[in-house]
Amino acid sequence: MHMLFGKEHVQRYQETDGAEGHEWNGTTTLLLTTTGRRSGKKYTTPLIYQRHGDSFLVVASKGGDPRHPEWYLNLQADPEVEVQVKDEKFRARAHTALPEEKPEMWRMMTRVWPDYDTYQTKTDREIPVVVLERLS
């Protein structure tokens, strides 16, 4: 199977309820859908995640780019998001990890994707960890 990226990754994940796309490059991904802060359109992004209690963690790394990824800017404007993990879809509220919770969460994420540490060395921007809390 070839490596999935971008729109194709999202499409295969949605079509197969995560049978294709959840396992990715030795780790796992979820789909995060945000609302465009200017367009109002829905945008879906595949992201590496880890469970943290009842919540899910994702990292707004953009490969160490000096700018935040669009999805992160969108959820700052509207923290109500949609999440898909395998065949499970739910609404969630997103928030940036607080300074006191981030170190533990960052370690969790770098255990599954060590490149996050490399990305952080490439940018002066503090790369956020985002907590996705399920809404009932």
TrEMBL record:
<dbReference type="InterPro" id="IPR004378">
    <property type="entry name" value="F420H2_quin_Rdtase"/>
</dbReference>
<protein>
    <submittedName>
        <fullName>Nitroreductase family deazaflavin-dependent oxidoreductase</fullName>
    </submittedName>
</protein>
<dbReference type="Pfam" id="PF04075">
    <property type="entry name" value="F420H2_quin_red"/>
</dbReference>
<dbReference type="InterPro" id="IPR012349">
    <property type="entry name" value="Split_barrel_FMN-bd"/>
</dbReference>
<comment type="similarity">
    <text>Belongs to the F420H(2)-dependent quinone reductase family.</text>
</comment>
